[in-house]
Design brief:
The chain has helices at 39-52, 70-83, 112-124, 164-174, 194-221, 234-238, 251-262, and strands at 2-7, 11-18, 24-32, 62-67, 88-91, 135-140, 143-149, 155-162, 226-231, 246-247. By secondary structure, it is an alpha/beta fold. The protein folds into two domains: 2-91, Nucleotidyltransferase, domain 5; 107-249, Nucleotidyltransferase, domain 5 (2-Layer Sandwich), CATH 3.30.420. Strands 3-2-1-4-5 form a five-stranded mixed β-sheet, with helices on both faces. Helix 2 (70-83) links the parallel strand 4 (62-67) and strand 5. The longest helix is centred in the last third of the chain and has 28 residues, at 194-221.
Length: 264
């Protein structure tokens, strides 16, 4: 089995895959990103969860890790070497085979999670398209990222926005009277209370932003794009968007699986 680990600013997402040509995810789970935790503490959590899932430590043949949090990357590298020393470790970064040329300045500035998104999108969707279309992955994480892949399978850049959670927390912490709210779809765009108004601004506002950005990206790429939503709020926001082609909640982990297979 292969363990794909995507370390983000808020959460660490872990996927367990059968080793096959195509990604077959058996199970997945999330941990909180906490730079104060040691490799031993994370090992206890992961081993306990694997045990609950009926997976033995020795069943894990290899790991593929992407991280946008350098201290936690070091923690997980130590964890694998200490507790899964029989497992092969692939870390997304310079020198790792991805099958995706990165056209960015400089290429090393592209987040490992964005590379994984591009690989997952191209391998799962782009290669099969006839005729080929540009692809955009919209990832709803701590930051919302737009990752663009052209018809040649090249990563050509994208855009970064503050994420939904950041926006909600910023309104609450940086204003005197605005409350913290539960992010959910209100029935009406015109808010009838302060909480309702914030919900409308966040949910419908971000949906409109996504549609607008995908439309602008399509014009810039000279062709209508195939757009994929992923991440925490992807299902909620995509349900209100006209320009999202599909929701794929495992595309980042799938990309890590493909990267692992290209490097073993």
């Amino acid at each position: 089995m292969i363990c794909a680990v995507d370390i983000g600013n808020s959460n660490i997402t872990v996927g367990i895959y059968r080793k096959d040509e195509k990604p077959q995810i058996i199970n997945s789970f999330r941990l909180s990103s906490d730079m104060a935790k040691t490799e031993d503490e994370y090992a206890v959590l992961i081993l306990d969860i694997l045990r609950l899932l009926g997976i033995l430590k020795d069943d894990i043949e290899g790991f593929c890790i992407s991280s946008v949090v350098p201290p936690l990357l070091g923690t997980f590298e130590s964890l694998v070497k200490k507790y899964f020393h029989h497992s092969k470790l692939v870390v997304v970064g310079p020198g790792v085979k991805t099958g995706i040329p990165v056209i960015y300045n400089p290429p090393t500035d592209v987040g490992a999670d964005r590379v994984a998104n591009a690989v997952g999108a191209w391998e799962k969707y782009g290669k099969k398209m006839k005729p080929k279309k540009p692809i955009v992955v919209v990832d709803f994480g701590t930051a919302i990222t737009f990752d663009c892949i052209n018809q040649k399978g090249e990563y050509i850049g994208g855009a970064i926005f503050p994420g939904i959670y950041l926006a909600v927390e910023s309104l609450f912490k940086k204003t005197a009277k605005l409350p913290s709210i539960l992010v959910k779809k209100p029935n009406e765009v015109i808010g009838k209370s302060t909480s309702h108004s914030i919900q409308s601004g966040i949910v419908y506002g971000y949906a409109s932003m996504v549609d607008g950005m995908v439309e602008k990206i399509s014009r810039e790429m000279g062709n209508e794009v195939f757009s994929i939503a992923t991440g925490g709020y992807s299902s909620l926001i995509a349900s209100l968007c006209k320009k999202i082609s599909c929701v794929d909640e495992t595309i980042t982990l799938d990309g890590l699986f493909f990267i692992y297979m290209k490097n073993v």
